[in-house]
Amino acid sequence: MDMNPSFAFPRTLVMILALAATLAAILAACAEAPYTGRQQLMLVGDDQASEMGNQAAQEVLTKEPVVTGTPQAQMVQRVGQRIAAVTESQYKWQFHLVGKDVPNAFALPGGHVFVYEGLFKYARTEPQLAAVIGHEIAHVLARHGSERMSVAAATQLGTGIAGSTLGLSPTVMEAFGIAANYGVVMPYSRTQESESDRIGIILMAKAGYPPEASIELWQNMMQAPGDKPPAFLSTHPSDQQRIANIRKHLAEAQKYYQPAR
Ligand SMILES: [Zn+2]
């Protein structure tokens, strides 16, 4: 440990300046989530995230048994396209049904949405499926994947600056590399989950599905036999919390409701 006081001050100053520069860069890289107006840290470009998401989607498509032509597969397409149409976004939305008996659904940056056959045990009506797909589309629309990677990168960067004063030299690229590794698989935060529920019911309402169906869906989940939560819920808020949050935003969503023509 260098105890020479004449060097202690400049080193601290360098560290403070580096942190200030990082903070300035972070503050300059903000985005606003659609509908909610929540401020988001966005250090990852949308094109970059979409490219990563599309690559991951290709990998999923080679590994998972995709089902086409069945009534359920057609419903996924129909509901997906109907909701995609009201997003007014540039994403190339693509919807896939995976032939596995697990209650799972996820979306990737760029617009690939995957629904698993096992989900139909809980999403028993078309509006209930719309609640699932609306929620997944909301994750993409609000750029939650990029936000996750940005937060991870900023955390790494902060650690890096602290580390460099200790003689370590992690780079920004390493920070992004680490974030990128986790980008696709890291669970969404609770904030993002609640936000996707809120945006999701707005989207389904705009597409002509009654947003109350979202509550039905989560009630079905709550009554699910067994104590193991469905896979895509494991990092999610509890069903009770979730239903309470959806109820809170139901009136807002109903303002967007357009009966299907
Ligand atoms: Zn989610």
Automatic annotation (TrEMBL):
Cofactor note: Binds 1 zinc ion per subunit.
Keywords assigned: Hydrolase, Metal-binding, Metalloprotease, Protease, Signal, Zinc
Domain Peptidase M48: start-end pairs: 73-248
InterPro entries linked: Mito/Outer_Membr_Metalloprot (IPR051156), Peptidase_M48 (IPR001915)
Required cofactor names: Zn(2+)
GO biological process, one term: proteolysis involved in protein catabolic process
GO cellular component, one term: membrane
Coiled-coil spans in chain: none
Organism: Desulfocurvibacter africanus subsp. africanus str. Walvis Bay
PANTHER family tied to this protein: M48 FAMILY METALLOPEPTIDASE (PTHR22726:SF24), METALLOENDOPEPTIDASE OMA1 (PTHR22726)
Keyword presence, Nucleus: no
Family named by the database record: Belongs to the peptidase M48 family.
Metal-binding in keyword set: yes
Name of the protein described by the UniProt record: Peptidase M48 Ste24p
Family matches, as Gene3D superfamilies: Metalloproteases ('zincins'), catalytic domain
GO molecular function: metal ion binding; metalloendopeptidase activity
Signal peptide: 1-20
